[in-house]
Amino acid sequence: MQITLSSGKTIPMEMHKVRIVQQTWLHPIDRRHRAMQEAGFNTFLLRSRDIFLDMLTDSGTNAMSDNQLAAMMVSDDAYAGSESFFKLADAVKEMLGFALTIPVHQGRAAEHLIAKTFVKPGQACIMNYHFTTTKAHFEMAGGVVLELYQDEALKTQSDNPFKGDIDLDKLTKTIDELGAENVAFIRMEATTNLIGGQPFSMRNLQAVREICNQHNIMLVFDGSLLMENAFFIQQREQPERNVADIAREMMTMVDLYYMSARKGPAVRGGMIAMNDQALFDRLLPLVPLFEGFSTYGGMSTKEIEAMAVGLREMLSGDIAGSGAEMVAFFVRRMVEENLPVVTPAGGLACHVDVSRFLPHIPQTEYPAGALAAAFFLVSGVRGMERGTISTDRDIDGNDVPAGVELMRLALPRRVYTMSHIEYAVDRLKWLFEHRELVRGLTWISEPPVLRFFFGRLAPIGQWDVQLRKAFCTEFGDDAM
Ligand SMILES: *Cc1c(COP(=O)(O)O)cnc(C)c1O
């Protein structure tokens, strides 16, 4: 919800109160510098104890509600036939309309099972945009990932409300060229994570459904960020409807749904859901092999209970947009300070437009990774590189320059406050004023797949030392 103040300004308004808190520490820059060096200038390798505000991800880091915590106390740990599972299945049926549910341990586990079951070598997996784990799983199964986004999607400064739409002309053309039999499925990602949590429209989804019908192609739906996509449709396309209704209508167009429950439902888990028994029967044999028996799928039954509650809560009017509104505030503050940021605001994070923040660093020296390292150094805030480091090399071993270089500052839902956001914006502003001190990164050790997780890098020309000096000159040696 948003509240308009008497000044005419709007602010995000949390429709919850905080009753359990967790302490966090803001260490001096000396300690942050050592931590960054030990982490190989990769924010994934930092330890939590060294971090002030953790904006790495919104995955598994969201605050649960009192009702979710209460539900965990009554979980049923039966290995097979757990009552907790049936509560989840009921919530899925009621909120999303699917009769069949398969719990899995997280979103990528769903992708793994879907890839193994439905992707044949050489087949195209068509999508509006990829997600890192999605692409890795589909390619490992021999699939070819084709992203048919509109040209506007990669424009960082835009007022297009639906940058996550698939390009329908490209879609029809691609299917005609390939032949429908060479398409494994069309996958729609509800708010495209990697390009800033940008939504697609209901109209676009309806058109994709029609194309699927014409060609008898399966529509797979990644609903990890479903509540934000439904919220944006309500805000930007169908203001007369409520979010739960919109989500349910979206689901009527889907053959195979999967999600990470680590985002909206605020638990540690995931699921696959569908109405078609034949699809279920094809997936089922792999579930006990890779996840666990079909009524727990690798999840703790406590988390399954909390997921059932979380699924209902996430589509309620007061909660669905609450994360997105904090993100919108963050982005608006960035714009007010003339800091380069992706617009319009997406669902899960504020995305800093690194190509405009650090235009002097070529993509071969990983500007987004350099910015994430520099920002941690001057703030203790952990963000995530979403640029060329996050894109693995091609089969010939060449770096593939990312379409956009971003630093993602995710906002775990119901965790951070406006003060935290103001602090992050202020330190970014300081960094922007000293941006010429930041230089690129080079590899120390580089894994071949999903290198952004474990790769170690070093600053080219020890710019970290210069940056720290400038920071201490302004804020003092013990400066926070
Ligand atoms: C988070 C996410 C995933 C992967 O889910 P995990 O639970 O992290 O394995 C897949 N797709 C999208 C769009 C996501 O946001």
Describe the protein.
By secondary structure, the protein is of the alpha/beta class. It folds into two domains: 2-58 and 320-475, Aspartate Aminotransferase, domain 1; 66-318, Aspartate Aminotransferase, domain 2. It has helices at residues 29-38, 66-72, 83-96, 107-118, 132-140, 168-178, 202-215, 226-236, 243-251, 277-283, 286-290, 301-314, 317-320, 322-336, 354-357, 367-379, 418-433, 451-454, 463-475; strands spanning 2-4, 10-12, 53-54, 100-104, 124-127, 144-147, 183-189, 219-222, 256-260, 270-274, 349-353, 381-382, 384-386, 406-410, 441-445, 456-459. The strands form five sheets. It has a seven-stranded mixed beta sheet, with helices on both faces. It has a three-stranded antiparallel beta sheet with strand order 11-14-13. Helix 2 (66-72) packs antiparallel against helix 12 (301-314), helix 8 crosses helix 9 and helix 14 packs parallel to helix 17 (418-433). The longest helix is centred in the last third of the chain and has 16 residues, at 418-433.
Using the coordinates shown, work out and report the CATH topology of the largest domain. Answer: Aspartate Aminotransferase, domain 2
- The share of residues in extended strands comes to 5-15%
Q: Give the N-to-C terminal Cα separation.
A: 33 Å
Per CATH, the superfamily of the largest domain is: Type I PLP-dependent aspartate aminotransferase-like (Major domain)
Low-pLDDT runs of 5+ residues are none
Q: Rg, please?
A: 22 Å
**How confident overall, as mean pLDDT?**
96
CATH class of the largest domain: Alpha Beta
Q: What is the second-level CATH architecture of the largest domain?
A: 3-Layer(aba) Sandwich
Give the helix level as a range of percent.
40-55%
- What is the number of domains? 2
Record field, number of beta strands: 16
- Largest sheet entry: 7 strands, mixed
Which shape, going by the Cα principal axes? globular
Structural classification: alpha/beta
Count of discrete alpha- or pi-helical segments spanning 4 or more residues: 19
Hetero ligands = pyridoxal-5'-phosphate
